[in-house]
Amino acid sequence: MKLVAVTSCPTGIAHSQMAAENLLQAGERLGHDIDVEVQGAMGTQDELSSDAIAEADAVIITSDTSVSRDRFDGKLVLKGTVKDGVNNAEAVVEKAVELAEAGKTGSVTFGSGDDGEDADAGADDSSGDAAESDEPVRRGGDPEKGLFARLKKLFS
Q1: Element (DSSP H or E) covering residue 72
Q2: SS3 label, residue 42
Q3: Options 6, 9, 53, 97, the catalytic residue
Q4: Among 8, 23, 48, 121, which is 20 to 30 Å from 59 by CA?
Q5: What are the tens digits of pLDDT across the range 144-155?
Q6: Are 130 and 67 members of one domain?
Q7: Whether residue 44 sits in one domain with residue 99
Q8: Are both 75 and 145 inside the same structural domain?
């Protein structure tokens, strides 16, 4: 089976690279052809070609940041966290293959988000409506502790 994947985290230095490597190894170990694009602070590495996307049976996105899905229209897109790609790459690939073989299309959320979503969903439903409309969702942790802030302090 042909798969493509995108990994992305706010910094894009370690975790997205680890997720990419684990997805590549898991896909190959399970006998599938997989291409992985890494997005991070340093830009995009191993960008997926339009041909690779067109040939893909499924798209895997393990990301803690926003990834544009426009180029994946009409494809099965599985969305999880970078943690899923790092810790459960084989299960992620197996889930993609299972859904693709079943003929599923559209967007599916999987992995560690599934375990926590039920508990978090209740909390989000009780206070999330006001927070969603009044405050934007912020991801990536404290910007004062981020890589660029640390580099700026180092060189100043």
Answers
A1: none
A2: coil
A3: 9
A4: 121
A5: 666 667 777 777
A6: no
A7: yes
A8: no
